[in-house]
Amino acid sequence: MAKINILSEVICNRIAAGEVIDRPYSAVKEMIENSLDAGATEIEVYIERGGKDLIKIVDNGCGIEKDDMRAAFFSHATSKISTLEDIDNIHTLGFRGEALATIAAIAQVELISVTVGNDAWKVECDGEFIGQVEPAALDKGTQITVRNIFFNTPVRRKFLKTDKKEEADITSFVTRYILGNPRVAFKYFIDGKLTLQSYGGGLEEAIAQVYGSKYLPQSFKINADRNDIHVYGFIGNQNFFKPNKSYQNVYLNGRCISNNVISTAISQAYAPYAMKRNYPVYTLFIDVPTEIVDVNVHPNKADVRFVDNQLIFGTVYKVISSVLDGTAKAADFVVDSTVVPEIKSTFAESGSKNAVYASDYTQSGKVYDKNFDDVAMPQFTPDGKIKKAEQATPAPPVQPQPLVSDHSYYEKLESRNIQPKTVDEVPLYKAFAPLREENKMKVCGGVKPLPVRVAEQERAKAEQERIAYENWKYKGDFFNTYLIYETGDDVYLIDQHAAHERMIFDSLIEKLKNRTSIPRQGMLIPYILDLNAQESAFISENLMLIRRMGFDIEPFGVTAYRVNEVPLDLQDIDLKAFFGDLLSDLGGLRSIKVEDVLRDKIAMTACKHAVKGGMRLTDAEKQKLIEMLKGDVGLKCPHGRPVCVKMTRTQIEKMFKRIV
Q: Which residues form a coiled coil (predicted)?
């Protein structure tokens, strides 16, 4: 067995950097949190090349004493905690004493700081050696400059994202800190250009700076106290949704977090109003007693754990659902009475159909009011994950007393005048995946790649299903929708809408592939696409591809884009839906192809212009449709429905028991 070595502090710091600082945005996050903990009211953030070349944070906080400046680079050196008991009562964003040490382990760092009434001093660190304290020039606060991040870990630097993607992730975090600290003035510079600025004028001003003026009029401002938990901020109304989750912000005791218990509660509150692939918008602050939450879960401090997940879930769900549903309690939760949703009676007034249970229970000597709707409350594991159905444990033996009779979920929706959504909407780019262009991967070693083999099998199958339509005999139709043709011992039923839709779709796709120039239709009023930093980075990355499809699109401001022209073939396209599909599910955004989304819209255009079911066709129109079909009975419409159904004489005679 090899000798066991005690690793040096330098090696330990470089290993720890993988947990604390994995990308440039991590360094920005840690340094902004240090500035906030220092009481800064003004913070400036500078980055170059997505933070790879430069990250600089300047604040007006309390500064660092001269004698402590070198110690700031030591591992586990912090001013935030001093005793073991402090870990259970954390009120600051940072507390581990790892951030500056790990940043200095993988970058070239310069720290300049000054305290009130003293001179400014400077310390430099080049990834291994900490320099001496030297005189410097700075009016107030602290300035930290980080250059060439991961310069001494080339493997990690090689796996960084592109400059634009790293920049977008940093911008996303900066916006979260602007929203989470609305009384702090921020300036954010990208490659020397001022990109974002807030003035510390409060939450409304911060939201307007980050998301624009359209956000607030579509949101409720809430302020609620339940079960010793304070919930406040802005939540989108019943009709305000976005195609991805990048507009969702939760701050627990001032810390930006991502927690499954809270997100599930909010999602369930919005469930009766949200359509598929639409996500609620909210900037929500939740303050809880420090003794019921553990923030010391992971070095990135992004997740937390609660002593009682059910209490947190129920409180958040109750507040938001009450506002959205317009119950009488909403008047207590919504700050501005002019935007309170329509108030509907509750059990205390007229015996609402919604069954509400009232029960109290005691925890840690405090009495909590569990006034939760009869929502199907999930069971959580201790780390906040939802248990699977087979793992769920029975609810605690509390005997609630129903004040009114219980009703089903659908009866509750009916009482709110909401239609339950039961249609499973499948993204079109998945529904007709076999129609995509043939994979152009090269054949390697004589073995064709799987996508190529699948495409060839599909073509061979289509050829087998192609028959000589010239011998078909028209026998009529039924419902003015299905055309009946006979040939030999076979009968073919043609869906006239599906067939015509497929023909139009193929024609549009062929035009799109073969045209050398794209005819465009100018818009009377340009369409303005307002985006956040992550969405803007994706559009910027695919801008040339979108333009090649026939869209005249150009930057309009910092993160917005203006669409001046659209392809003539798609002049009636719904641009909001098109870009919504394009930007849906930011987590898996890179796997969605712009071409596929455009094909979805072409399919919708084909559907809109095809003959409809129930429309009577002339004999000439029927003949023309069959000629366009060219006997290809294996086709499907762009949505995946069959164009033609074949029935043999044997099948029909079996139906009538002529044969067995």
A: none
- More confident of the two residues 557 and 190: 190
- Quote the CA–CA distance of 421 and 426 in Å, as a whole number: 14
Over the range 544-561, which residues count as b (16 or more CB within 10 Å of their CB) and which as e?
eebeebbbbbeeeeebeb
- Three-state secondary structure readout of 290-329: HHHEECCCCCCCCCCEECCHHHHHHHHHHHHHHHHHCECC
Q: pTM of the prediction?
A: 0.64
Only one residue has tokens 């001013």, namely: 79
Distance between CA atoms of residues 107 and 417, nearest Å: 59
Contact between 474 and 622 under an 8 Å Cβ cutoff? The reply is yes
Helix (H) or strand (E) holding 637: none
Residue spans of alpha helices (H) in 200-342: 203-211, 260-270, 309-325, 330-333
What is the per-residue pLDDT across 601-619, written as a single tens digit (0 to 9) for each? 666 666 776 777 778 888 8
Residue 511 to residues 291, 517, 602, Cα–Cα distance (Å):
65, 10, 11
Q: Shortest CA distance to 530 belongs to which of 570, 571, 573, 580?
A: 580
Could you list the beta-strand ranges (E) of 504-595.
520-529, 552-555, 561-567
Closest CA to 538 of 573, 602, 581, 599: 581
Q: Which residues contact 575 (CB under 8 A, 6 or more apart)?
A: 527, 529, 563, 566
- Burial class, 198, CB count within 10 angstroms (exposed 0-12 / middle 13-18 / buried 19+): buried
Q: Tell the burial category of 93 from Cβ atoms under 10 Å away from its Cβ (0-12, 13-18, 19+).
A: buried
Which residues are 478's β-sheet partners? 482
Nearest 5°: the CA angle 252, 587, 167 is 80
Residue-averaged pLDDT of the chain: 75
User: Is the Cβ–Cβ distance between 265 and 231 less than 8 Å?
Assistant: no
Q: What is 111-178 written as a DSSP string?
A: EEEE-TTS--EEEEE-SS-B---EE---SSEEEEEEESTTTT-HHHHHT---HHHHHHHHHHHHHHHH
Cβ 157 vs Cβ 149: under 8 Å: yes
Residue type at 280 in one-letter notation: P
**Which of 360, 359, 361, 353 is CA-nearest to residue 327?**
353
Q: Kindly report, residue by residue over 454-486, the tens digit of the pLDDT.
A: 555 555 555 445 566 677 888 888 888 898 988
- Tell me the two tokens of residue 510: 């062929």
Q: Are 359 and 398 in contact (CB under 8 A)?
A: yes
Give the distance, in angstroms, between the CA of residue 290 and the centroid of all CA atoms in the same chain: 29
| ∠ Cα 31 36 39 (to 5°) | 135
Per-residue pLDDT band at 284 (split at 50, 70, 90): very high
